Fold:
Amino acid sequence: MNKVKIGLAGIGNMGTNHSKWIAEGMIPEMELCAVCDSDPNRLEWAKINLPESVVKFSDASAMFRSRLIDAALIATPHYQHPPLTIDAIRCGLHVMSEKPAGVYTKQVSEMNEVASKSGKVFAIMYNQRTDQLYRKMKEIIDSGEFGQIKRTNWIITNWYRSQAYYDSGGWRATWAGEGGGVLINQCPHNLDIWQWICGMPVSVRAFCHEGKWHDIEVEDDVTAYVEYKNGATGVFITSTADAPGTNRFEVMLEGGKLVCEDGKLHIYKLEMNEREFNRINKEGFKAPAFIHSIVEPDGQSSQHIGVLKSFAAAILRGELLIADGIEGIKGLSISNAMYLSSWLGKMVSLPLEEDLFLDELKKRISTSRIKAQQ
Amino acid sequence: MNKVKIGLAGIGNMGTNHSKWIAEGMIPEMELCAVCDSDPNRLEWAKINLPESVVKFSDASAMFRSRLIDAALIATPHYQHPPLTIDAIRCGLHVMSEKPAGVYTKQVSEMNEVASKSGKVFAIMYNQRTDQLYRKMKEIIDSGEFGQIKRTNWIITNWYRSQAYYDSGGWRATWAGEGGGVLINQCPHNLDIWQWICGMPVSVRAFCHEGKWHDIEVEDDVTAYVEYKNGATGVFITSTADAPGTNRFEVMLEGGKLVCEDGKLHIYKLEMNEREFNRINKEGFKAPAFIHSIVEPDGQSSQHIGVLKSFAAAILRGELLIADGIEGIKGLSISNAMYLSSWLGKMVSLPLEEDLFLDELKKRISTSRIKAQQ
Structure:
């Protein structure tokens, strides 16, 4: 095998992009052999816009069993990510799933178990992990040079969506159709990057406001406070109604501070670790000296193309994935915990009580404005 | 009367500055006639450094009753602000108190009641209200041009203090001596400016970490979430261990965004109110257009001198105060609510349950490392 034969499940917003990128040869080690979509209009689009050699299916199961493909790329609505991934793996395929990994962690735990036992490559489309500035933040923190994390803070409110966006699909922003709002649709990348760089919190107190700015049943405004195992604290704020929004990610460490904002990474490096300075300094109002530097993007953020290339390389040559599919549960656990905390009105712990969360989610699905498939 | 004859109670850190400014004639309508301090070393300093004409007292009560002064400036430890203010007003004096107004609102309510009935001028040293950038923020928001507030966020962690600072006085950072940590000592200005510009919250959920970064019994790290009457939310984060710290104050409004950081005010003004845009826009991913402008300081922030001048002008000519003393209770109510929320582990409402707060504070005072006067 010198090219991965791939089948794409779902040719919606993201699926359309994926199909074009692969068909145009932007991922040299990947060949688009099949696509499927339950919507005849999208298949019609595929007939016109994709090469004739790409076989079109109206059913994912049939595509997985067609023997035309080695791997599946899942770009369907959120709820279908785990069952389709499980089905594809059981058909002997490697799988890359779009984000989020699923809607509730119980479903994703099952998916991860099947994937782990299969020996197949399982990846997730966390393309923001290729972002040079986030990689730099992770590299600095993982190196230990700045010591432990003391505080994290991400204000990520540049997700402006007006009512017209929410009105564009009956399943959008419903408990039954999407399983949530800004946390499940817009924020999976940020929640993943947050935990990828800073680690998983151990407790969460969140305030999710449902239908606050739009006529929707799910949350469009969230403030969450978290605590980490080492005692560090964090705040995550998101909304789809702030204009112009903010995207500012600050990490305070013993050895300085990192601030990623406006496409630049500001690095403030202390000359002495603050914990050490605190012990030895004798002057009441003196603070540790620091050096400020700025990292600007070098254009080396490969995004979706990079993630797809790494998926092919993992299948063909066993190279490391940019984002192992198993990792998808981490960011999802955080958003599940945020919902649960807000619904119960109290602090909740991680790992999450998966059954309790699912019970609460089901209550909301049962009265959802749409009764969608799951 | 063409000059206000003032007596200064307390010649510590701030009192020393006040005594010099007034003695040097920086407040032309004010004359320093007396000072008092219970510490003989500070009186010795006064003898050497202040004009001979300034009468020195070791007791505030005697100074208030000396008939040498028209007004008192209170710059003592926090707990003494209300009782000394009440005593001075009862002696027929006008009063300016340093911040905070007191340590618990019950005490400050009594002070405000006495002050309100007295007909005397009662002011508080909220010098940051003279800051040009904060005044500009308040002017924009009060004008209504940007519509209602949707979200407030203040990260104010540039209060670095090492252990040496806390070790410099036995009363420092104790429940009995100061009545709190970073909220009561460093943040009164910020809490006042926050409510002055954005209004009072109606509920507070705070996470105060006591002795987290220093060997102290009070809080040195706080994250608080608040909600306002109109449904807006807010976050306030402070610490004395972040290095280098952050001072970033963001207010999101229906008509745009204000961000005050690094000594500059960024104004993002939408061409159309977001609430209106949300209703009429038909394109899913479109956001309202905006204009970005920056206000830089013009050097017109008069700080302490300005507040003292306005106190004299209010006494002599009935001019408006920069900060009415009665207002001191507002910021204090917020910090009291933050403590109470954190101690009880739940959301608390404002106005505060003053007795409940005082009971909880007394528990902490009773086991405090120092048993100070109150």
